[in-house]
Structure formats: C-alpha cells, structure tokens
Amino acid sequence: MARKQLFMNKRSFELPSVVKWILLILLILFLAVIIFLIVLYNQIQDSKTAGFQVAEQRVIQESSIVDILKTSRFFGENGYHVIYGKTDDKVTQIAFVPDDKAQKITIVNEDETISSDEVRENWQQGCKNCSLIKIVPAILKDTPLWEISYQDEANRYVLEYVSIYDGSQYEEFRFKKMFQ
C-alpha cells in the first residue's frame, strides 16, 4: 500500500504548450540553416569546376589532345582553363583555353618546358627564407608562364611569373599587408 501511494504522489511533468512551440520553431530554423549551408557549399563547389567540360570538349575538337589528364583554372587579364592532356603519340601537352571562344587555344608540349620541380629548385636558391604557397601554369599576354605564389622574408605575398620554357623572370608583384 505504501508503495502504491508513493507512485500516486508523483506528478507527471508536462511542458507548457508555448515552450513546445518555441522548441519546434527553433528546431525547424536549425534544420533550415543546415539545409541552406549544404546547398550553398554545393553551389560553391560546382562553380569551381564550371566550364571544365566545355573547355575539355573544345580542346579535344581543336587540338591533337585526345586524353584529358587534369583541368584547372587560371585568372590573369582573362580567365583560362589549363588542361593537361595526351596526344595519340602519348605526348603530354598543356592547353590554355581562353574563356572567350573567339581567342585561340595556346598549346605547349610539356617536354619543351621546365618542370614545376625545376622551378621550385631555382626559386628556393634565390629565396631561402620564403614560404612557398604554390606553383601553377599561367598565361599572360599570350605568353605561357609558371606562376609562383609565396611569402617573402618581409612577409609580403608575392606573385612571380617565370618563363615556362627556360625559367627566366617575366614579371613580379609584391603585396604588403595593410591590416593585421
């Protein structure tokens, strides 16, 4: 009997209906924000590869490249797709495909260029206390180049352009930080 009375004195706890509605609205808002962030992330990722297929098809149609190995983007005065590919003869080529379809594609045989590893070695000899960010193919004024991005000893962001054929310096930009 004492046991039964103990359970009868316990009251069940129930949230007021206003609290239930507030929790439901917060849950719906949380889910909406998560869905929005997922959609936004996917759109940003898709924009990074926008135009890749069109540029790859153009290279296959307008050049001797038959097999695409890698595609990336370069933004100089104009936008370019940079496509590594192989010909029927297994020669690796780099194609610079301008966004403007009226401009012609610039193609370079990879065996006529210095490698990015050679560019890195030459750069390290000239800039011992610098921090390399990346080395990528570039094209400025229809001249194929390597773009070397790094931070120098003075903590400036540097874009250095060197010839893709012999590594000679073409152009250099140094940017200093205005804000910490």
Q: Describe it for me?
A:
- With 180 residues, this protein is an alpha+beta fold.
- Among the domains are: 52-111, Nuclear Transport Factor 2, Chain: A (Roll); 116-175, Nuclear Transport Factor 2, Chain: A, CATH 3.10.450.40.
- Helix content is 34%, strand content 36%.
- It is built from four helices and eight strands, in the order αααββββαββββ.
- The strands form two sheets. The chain has a four-stranded antiparallel beta sheet, with helices on one face. A four-stranded antiparallel beta sheet has the order 5-6-7-8.
- The protein is elongated, with a radius of gyration of 29 Å.
- It starts with a helix and ends in a 5-residue tail after the last strand.
First-to-last CA distance: 75 Å
- Give the CA-based shape: elongated
User: What's the main sheet like?
Assistant: 4 strands, antiparallel
Radius of gyration: 29 Å
Q: What is the spatial order of strands in the main beta sheet? A: 1-2-3-4
Strand content: 35-45%
Features:
180 residues, alpha+beta, Nuclear Transport Factor 2, Chain: A, 4-stranded antiparallel sheet
Task: Characterize this entry briefly.
By secondary structure, the protein is of the alpha+beta class. The protein is 34% helix and 36% strand. The chain has helices at 2-9, 17-48, 52-62, 116-126; strands at residues 65-75, 79-87, 92-98, 106-109, 131-140, 143-151, 157-163, 169-175.
